[in-house]
Design a protein that fits this description.
Strand order of the largest sheet: 5-4-3-7-6
Helix content: 40-55%
Number of helices: 6
Structural class: alpha+beta
Number of strands: 10
Distance between the termini: 31 Å
Largest sheet: 5 strands, antiparallel
Order of helices and strands: HHHHEEEEEHEEEEEH
Radius of gyration: 29 Å
Shape: elongated
């Protein structure tokens, strides 16, 4: 079973504390009328404790049953799906538990079933649905907190990710590997390029052509060939220092000087050129792994 990160536990503790203040100070929907006034603080504390415990339970369900653990490296669709499932689990359980809790406080243990009966003694979900509606209202404030905290943590993860990449770059000399064997990169027509893969700086896909930038006797050269990036990637599959970092780019990681960016994306800076190369979010982990080789 996967564990819940400490930062998430702290979030739920803050959530429970917030509800305690809400119950204690605002006394929503006249709930204090159903208990002894002097015991209201203890009742609201018990309610907040249940919110904390069942938040943890809902987190465990989302993490281990739905296989959506807390992961701030994931994009917003993942975060939203995770949060929706968490709220559904939490509201379904809390609507019953808290309703049962206040029913027992008001009528005692022997009449716990009052929560599930109407005034005629027939089974009903009226009180349960009423509690669920109240929980949805409370969760609006939870979602405001969740949105800003998730946005902040995703940004922080992105910053740490870029720092880790640049740390890997700092340990790598900006020098190509020893000159490898020469290969011929062919195009769909008669043009071709004979080059050492270690001397390729980057390859860019432009329309139906590839723009190959490479070094020849220390000078940066360019060659346009009619071909697809996928086809050339297959030709260069045996050279792990040439990384497909974006749908339109391959780059020689040995020439990377640093990487910069923000939550919207990142760009590679290369030795001997001012052009920056974009890195798609799906390929950031591949870039880290390649630099760690």
């Amino acid at each position: 079973m996967k564990k819940i990160p400490g930062i998430i536990v702290r979030d739920y503790a803050m959530l429970a504390a917030g509800f305690f203040l809400f119950f204690t100070l605002m006394k929503p929907w006249g709930m204090q009328n159903y208990v002894v006034e002097s015991l209201w603080y203890l009742q609201s504390m018990g309610c907040s404790l249940m919110i904390f415990l069942f938040s943890l339970l809902s987190e465990l369900v989302v993490t281990n049953v739905f296989h959506l653990p807390s992961d701030y490296s994931k994009e917003w669709p993942y975060q939203i799906k995770r949060e929706v499932l968490f709220l559904l689990c939490l509201i379904i359980v809390l609507a019953a538990v808290i309703g049962q809790y206040f029913t027992i406080i008001e009528f005692g243990w022997k009449k716990w079933y009052y929560f599930w009966n109407d005034h005629d003694g027939n089974f009903t979900l009226k009180w349960y649905m009423n509690n669920a509606a109240q929980d949805v209202v409370w969760c609006i404030f939870v979602e405001i907190y969740w949105y800003f905290m998730t946005k902040s943590r995703m940004k922080e993860y992105r910053i740490q990710e870029l720092l880790a990449i640049n740390e890997s770059i700092d340990k790598t000399d900006v020098i190509p590997e020893p000159k490898s064997e020469v290969i011929e990169i062919t195009g769909d027509s008669k043009e071709s390029l004979t080059v050492s893969p270690s001397e390729i700086l980057y390859i860019e896909s432009v329309a139906n052509y590839l723009s190959i930038w490479y070094f020849l006797d220390g000078d940066l050269k360019q060659k346009r060939i009619r071909n697809t990036l996928k086809s050339v990637e297959e030709m260069l599959a045996g050279y792990p220092f040439l990384l497909h970092c974006h749908r339109a780019f391959m780059v020689n990681i040995r020439f990377i000087t640093h990487v910069e960016g923000n939550s919207a994306g990142c760009q590679i800076h290369l030795f001997s050129t001012e052009k920056t190369i974009p890195v798609s979010k799906a390929n950031i982990e591949a870039l880290r792994n390649a630099l760690g080789q």
